Amino acid sequence: MSSKALEGVRVMDMTHVQSGPTATQLLAWFGADVIKVELPGRGDVTRTQLRDVPNADSLYFTMFNSNKRSITVNIKSAAGKAILEDLARKSDVVTENFGPGVLDRAGFTWERLQELNPRLIYASIKGFASGSIYEDCKAYENVAQCMGGEASTTGFEDGPPLVTGAAIGDSGTGVHFALAITAALLQREKTGRGQRVQVAMQDAVLNLCRVKMRDQQRIMRGPLNEYPNKEFHDYVPRAGNASGGGQPGATLRCLGGGANDYAYVIIQPQSWEPLMKFCGREELITHPDYATPEARLSHLDECFSIIEVWTKTKTKFEVMAALNAHNVPSGPILSTKDLIETESFYKRGYMVELDHPTRGKYVQLGCPVNLSDSPVDIKRAPLLGEHTDEILAWLGKNPAEIQKLHAEGSV
Fold first, then answer.
1. Given Cys at both, which of 266, 278, 338, 380 links 329, Cβ 3.0 to 4.6 Å?
2. Do residues 314 and 322 touch, judged by C-beta distance below 8 A?
């Protein structure tokens, strides 16, 4: 049996909602013992958000908290704070994504945690970095997208800025966070010391938008030649569904007429000829207005209209099959329904159907990263406080002490 990559690593997880839980779920999948610390009686706020089953944990919660244990602790009580200090002494990592200063005011400063455990890695997600003019402000998914450069470059030129459906503010930050924690753990092997880890949502979103920062610097040297018909701006314009890699691309309507019956098609230099053969427009292969990428730039809308005449006669999957057979990049627009019904995801274990004590069966996305020597077994998310007594016993509390902690509301 292979061991887990992070086996033996213990994480005291004080994060909530999505950004932090994304990171700690990744750590749990890699084998870390993630102890989710929650408020008694309520827990992570997402347990009750967007419920589809009465009196059961929501899918919002279960999707981000698999493979963890849950303990409920009243951080406002002296006994509750003592439990958290005991956990910090026996943990390798403490994670949190509270508002600025919340844990400091509760007495859990970086300096105090270092006193408790010099090897501890104290990792925080904030909306904005220390030293930022916005560092005292809170941020959520769409705020991070808007302030990290994503929204200003998304949408069509004649429309408003748009946020993306992909949670690059929350989950995107969480992936950065997991990498930072793993790097700190590796460095600790060399130094023997813990360290402070901080990731800002604005910074993570901007990092994911760095190709747009590439274009911003190009714009400062003059108009971008891939937008010859667009008004010149001193910032990166919204480009609709155009490809960001320098090759023209567009979503084209396919047979069926449904909301997602589209295929994305890219016109690379070598793909123009096969595309025109599919469309029955061979005369345009050598036509001077279309024969080269430079010539096509001023006719892109027309080029894609010509291709769409053909795609409308095929399903999005037929378009993908035909074009990929000729090495023409293309992909159907897959809806969430298409994806959850894709059998191969289940066969390779990326989607797993799990049983939950109160909500019944649900589909859990598995680990998107594969390590040959660290296999991932997907387990359901914990019930609120499900492992409280188990963890208290591990901390050295006897049954009478545990009963007393429950009775006084400390756990």
1. 266
2. yes
Q: Judge whether residue 14 has pLDDT over 70.
A: yes
Name the pTM for this structure: 0.94
Short-list 97, 36, 107, CA closest to 66: 36
As a whole number of angstroms, the distance between CA 65 and CA 59 comes to 10
HSE of 328 in the Cβ direction (CA atoms, 13 Å)? 26
What are the tens digits of pLDDT across the range 81-109? Answer: 999 999 999 999 999 999 999 999 999 99
pLDDT of residue 1: 53
- CA separation, residue 166 to residues 103, 135, 150, 193, 372 (Å): 29, 24, 11, 36, 28
Quote the longest CA-to-CA distance of the chain: 88
Burial of 50 (0-12, 13-18, 19+ CB in 10 A): exposed
CA pair distance 325, 327, nearest whole angstrom:
6
Q: Tell me which residues are annotated as active site.
A: 170
Residues 136, 100 contacting (CB under 8 angstroms): yes
Write out pLDDT tens, residues 15-39. 999 999 999 999 999 999 999 999 9
Count how many Cα atoms sit within 13 Å of the Cα of residue 283 in the half-sphere of its side chain: 1
Q: Which amino acid is at 362?
A: Y
